[in-house]
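step 3/5: co-fold with S-adenosylmethionine
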Amino acid sequence: MYDGYSNFLVNRFRKLFGKNFEKVMESYSKQPKKAVRMNNLKIKTNDCLNRLKRKGFRFSKVPWADYVYFVEKEPTSLSATTEYLMGYFFIQDATSTLPAIELNPHSDEIVLDMAASPGGKTTHISQLMRNHGVIVAAEVNKERIKTLLYNLERMGVENVISIRTDATKIKELNLKFDKILLDAPCTADGTIGKNKRLKKELSQKLYDKYSKKQKELIRAAKEVLKPGGILVYSTCSTAPEENEIIVEYAVEKLGFKLLTLKNSRYFTQGMPIFFGEKHPNYLKKCGRILPYQYDTQGFFVAKLRL
Amino acid sequence: MFMMYFTIYIDMRFIEVEKTRYGWLNRLLPGVTRIFEDKIIIVAKAETEKIYLISKEMYHIYKKMEKHPYALGFFFAEVDGDNVKFSLGTADKYAKFKRKAVVVNKFGEEKFLYKRNIMKKHILRFTQDIHQDDLVVVVNKNWEALGFGKALFSSKEGVEQQGALVKHISDKGFFVKH
Ligand SMILES: C[S@@+](CC[C@H](N)C(=O)[O-])C[C@H]1O[C@@H](n2cnc3c(N)ncnc32)[C@H](O)[C@@H]1O
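step 4/5: write tokens
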């Protein structure tokens, strides 16, 4: 009935999403909508939109930002347009633009992006900082860090120091940051719509493995965040093990305070109860995007202060 | 000269260098070092030299960092002996100077982005400072940089000859694959 899914995942999603289960499954049977973020470091939003419209592309604005658009009609490949090559826009899932917006970085700050490649969020943070201040972008993977550099160059980003490192050892840099984005490596179970193999591959063991890694990463983040500094935690997973559990850990064990999201109205509230277990009520302040809300991937964002 | 060494990679070190050291690059691309402006030059030295430009605030952080970067700031060029490969970001900035530039039509743009040479039928106009064998920045009709090429004509003599007039060197089509 649920084509290609393991029994484990169907049962899990049924428990997790309750009355929304069918809607979630229906969304995951389709490709998520493509979106573009206009790169205001290089071009004004309308100028780019008009150029692409003249080529037959059609767009509709996302609710939370006036420079991010869903692609409604793509007559030729967007990534083969001159505008793409010029770095006038970045193609990304619309939900992936939420973390940088919540982070709200300023031009005079020093920001850490702990898991940066391919740079969708690094380039967005740079855009919000108007290419000033400093972003330290950490990435462990040798091949993926090259893609980060290409994207920085294409998008005209000049305020990034990229380092190849395991971010759990970020303390070794001996730097402190005003703001940190931890867009954590995750099971990516919110991307089933485009990564069909996940239907079979996901297991409890995998959720637990990532959960453990995410705790290590957020612990490392705490060590390099200035007092009063902001940490945005995000994943393209909808699993509580990778999300609420990590936030609860950050609050209870690391001394973070969970903040209300600026864009909370666009999210589904975080879950204080899941898989029959009760967790602190404050977890409602986290935000989850369920894939059927905007025909995107599933996503999660939390904002914390130290 | 102030020097800084990172010892973690034995084959790679990052050094701050004086701007004058790269003045000779202006012979290849007149005025290109205007891009240095108020920036600080950091060179990553391995078999080749990768030149990066960073702001003062980045420099401040970079100096405090106890680990070598992978890359930083604006990637300007890669120098291998006498061989210089200016970055595509440098093409963007240099195009704004309106020097050593060949403007191509839509057809020329498509060809060039597929690594093809520029022919007479692709050229809309060019700046008046081009000599045979010069490095030129190839731009489209909006003066958006597409990449670099080598001129096989001079602006004084014009573009009457048959065959390739700009030999392809580098282009942004490369970004599609990433
Ligand atoms: C979810 S992706 C990040 C996407 C990226 N933030 C963006 O918006 O384009 C996670 C990235 O973290 C990297 N990664 C995994 N473990 C890491 C670690 N321990 N330290 C640094 N990076 C890590 C992965 O290679 C991957 O590129």
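step 5/5: annotate
The CA atoms of residues 250 and 256 of chain A lie 6 Å apart.
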